[in-house]
Design a protein that fits this description.
The complex is a heterodimer of chains A (272) and B (156). By secondary structure, chain A is an alpha+beta fold. Chain A contains 11 helices and 14 strands. The relative contact order of chain A is 0.12. In chain B, 33% of the residues lie in helices and 17% in strands. The radius of gyration of chain B is 16 Å and the shape is elongated. Chain A: GO terms for molecular function: FAD binding; oxidoreductase activity.
Amino acid sequence: MKAADFRYERPASVADALALLGDEDRDAAPLAGGQSLMPMMNFRLAQPGTLVDLSALDELRGIKRDGEVLRIGAMTRYVELVRSDLVAECVPLLALALPHIAHAAVRNRGTIGGSVALADPAAEMPALLLALDAEITVQSPTGTKTHAATDFFLGMYDTALEEGELVTEIAIPVAAETDRFSFYELARRHGDYAMAGVAVARRDGSHRIAFFSISDRALRATGAEAVLDAGGGVQEAVAALSELPFAGDLNAGEATKQHLSGVVLTRALEAL
Amino acid sequence: MSDTANISVTVNGETTAAAVPVRQNLVDFLRNTLGLTGSHVGCEHGVCGACTLEVDGAMVRGCLMLAVQADGAQITTVEGYGDRAEALRAAFVEHNALQCGYCTPGMMASALEYVEAGGQADRAAIREHLSGNYCRCTGYQSIVDAVCDVIEGESA
């Protein structure tokens, strides 16, 4: 299968990219690393009129520490996160999870911003950002807005991103030495989309638990978080997952997703 | 009529200028326009790894990158690994690390990246690095054997 025809632009600045994306006659889509959009175009599930390639926007790349926040440009590739000492030091949960995100050749192209903007329910990054209490900055021709990750992922491939906006930066609080993190996913082949997965963060006795690939979007398990915050055990936390809106996919039905959620949470908590 | 773009790429050391349809992916350009049929096309959605090749020093999926995006890039395909892959080629032959050969160019690309990055002769780590390349013949054992051999040979 090959992509349907489109026009191609590679703007040299964010302002130019936003102008192209905002031109309604173009029916434009932004192209970040292309590791999800290109397959969708090859399947003809996506047929943008114009592809706006963001790869020349060096202003959207880079990883820097800004006080107690790590700021990651949206066009930063996964391979750069994998190799970053700053990421390993400031956001250990990301370092734990990155080797599970797709395969090496895909990490060489795929970007963090692309994953955030796509909001695939089976992708790791949205759940990681929920567990990390991250913020997502988006830019439009009229200015910038910052969303809490908790308010950003709305449904299957659905986010708070509005027409003509671009994700420009992801800001993640720097971990304290006493923070604890855990990540666990079940996939048929290492690097494939998981059948179920979870990221857990514990800070000052307070837990954040975020699942992926169990519903139409990445989800926090607030009931299970409350159980653990109150000193409850693993079994009680797993029981509290029944409130989540599980949804089946091509891999597994709803009941299996619920079962696997308990499995991955148990294993993640054992490793916390 | 598709939009076209003029690109200049250096493939296996040779610089070529071409007008490419913007919807053409990189591996199709290499195979159909340049006649470099060593990179194979399997699934065309980034799952099988048969089209894995090197762009500016990083192994990527040739089906998930457009030819127009490779403008100005240095590309190396299985036809161009030359001395870099000599030990791997010999080890693949010695261990029967291929049967039909369909996955081999992509498998070599991923294995080469692992070896050149200083990867250890650790079967689990090798399997993890090669996890993005499907082989339907060998069961992977002989491929992992070959990669281990190359690493152990280099450190010996």
